[in-house]
Design a protein that fits this description.
By secondary structure, this protein is mainly α. It has a domain of 68 residues. The chain contains three helices and no strands. The longest helix has 19 residues. It starts with 12 loop residues before the first helix and ends in a 27-residue tail after the last helix. The mean pLDDT is 75.
Length: 98
Amino acid sequence: MAHRPRSLPTSCAPAIRPSHRLTRLDSHRSFGEVERYNRTLGAEFAYARPWTCETQRADYLHPWLVHYTYHRAHTAIGNQPPASLAPTAVTNVMMQNN
């Protein structure tokens, strides 16, 4: 059985030139990025240091996510942060995290 997307929003279709890719539902290609993110989240955030309470950990999560998305180099995309892949034509992104 393959995952078949029902529809693609037509407003974004011309800008990103989408293509349909069929992958098996239980394939590593479907969940590999999420599993890698979860492993990184555990290693670099959740278990990287001892937390004294849940509130302290929760308060630090947002700054870590900003670092992960906007500043941390990712080898899979040429040592660039994921935010660097966003098209330059995007106008509804808040620039406070640069």
